[in-house]
DNA sequence: AAAAACATGCAATTGAAGTGCATTATTCCA
DNA sequence: TGGAATAATGCACTTCAATTGCATGTTTTT
């Protein structure tokens, strides 16, 4: 059994052909991925299947969904934890206005934010928009 | 000329009947508003007109659009600056999982966040989800 | 008053997300 | 091993917010 298959199994995901391919695709790309990105790369497969694949991955803690404000959902591997099974830490996301890519800055934890009395924080979404390292080097 | 009319004119917005009503509605509500909220309150008017009204307000700096992750856009008055004409400061938004309302926390500036080398920040969206003050008081 | 500019109403389109259901593949177990 | 049970896939269809095209109505300008 391949390493990928065992990662999927560790997350209670049956390693079908498409799932293995989607997982490989997510690994290969270092940026967050849309359903359209997947569809473009998998002529052979059906949009709905890819959709349900990624949702299965999400439900089982293998990827997390990213809302970067562009209106389309993106997904990225919880790579640091793909093996361990721990849930991915909260981190910030960066969306580049130039190349339109969104990346996880997993090493940048979200600072503590004080709220007015009575407000209880359960979850935080922090997205920074600007120019990414690749694009700023080209200026 | 009413005070409202002069606020609209200060933002180069012609004070039509609907625009005045929409502006009043935004003032009355202390939370961010969706297009559906507007439509529900304005039986007499057309969705498209309300949409274009709010977009005009936004373009002219009278309201700002809020993406709280629910999938539907919300809008709130740049009230602090409605008179001054200054652009609204960056601030965080709070979305209550209980009452589903979203509020601007205009007094809570977004802390400085350090980025890896090469990344340039132009804009920040920070949304905190949890329980708002009204809902936490009811527990 | 006529022309130009702008606002409004209604119909239609777009695009992402999600669901229903039939078909195919895999697993489970007698 | 041979099904029955369970899960995955494919295709059609729906939903919903956002947005646009165009005709009509209104206001402003000259
Ligand atoms: Mn991430
Ligand atoms: Mn706000
Ligand atoms: Zn970039
Ligand atoms: Zn609440």
Automatic annotation (TrEMBL), chains A, B:
Domain of life: Bacteria
Cofactor section: Zn(2+)
GO MF assignments: DNA-binding transcription factor activity; transcription cis-regulatory region binding; zinc ion binding
One biological process term in Gene Ontology: regulation of secondary metabolite biosynthetic process
Keywords: Metal-binding, Zinc
Gene3D superfamilies associated with the record: Winged helix-like DNA-binding domain superfamily/Winged helix DNA-binding domain
KW Metal-binding (keyword) present: yes
Pfam families: FUR
Binding site for Zn(2+): 96, 99, 132, 135
Cofactor note: Binds 1 zinc ion per subunit.
InterPro entries cross-referenced by the UniProt entry: FUR, WH-like_DNA-bd_sf, WH_DNA-bd_sf
PANTHER family for the chain: HYDROGEN PEROXIDE SENSITIVE REPRESSOR, ZINC UPTAKE REGULATION PROTEIN
Protein name per its UniProtKB record: Transcriptional repressor
Organism lineage string: Bacteria, Pseudomonadati, Bacteroidota, Flavobacteriia, Flavobacteriales
């Amino acid at each position: 059994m391949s390493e990928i298959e065992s990662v999927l199994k560790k997350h209670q995901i049956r390693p079908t052909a498409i799932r293995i391919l989607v997982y490989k695709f997510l690994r290969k790309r270092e940026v967050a991925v849309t359903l359209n990105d997947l569809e473009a790369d998998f002529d052979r497969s059906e949009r709905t299947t890819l959709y349900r694949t990624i949702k299965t991955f999400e439900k089982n803690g293998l990827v997390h969904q990213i809302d970067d404000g562009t209106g389309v959902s993106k997904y990225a591997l919880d790579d640091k934890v793909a093996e361990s099974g721990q849930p991915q830490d909260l981190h910030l996301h960066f969306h580049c206005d130039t190349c339109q890519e969104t990346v996880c800055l997993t090493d940048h934890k979200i600072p503590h934010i004080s709220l007015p009395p009575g407000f209880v924080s359960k979850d935080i979404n922090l997205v920074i928009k600007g120019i990414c390292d690749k694009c700023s080097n080209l200026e």
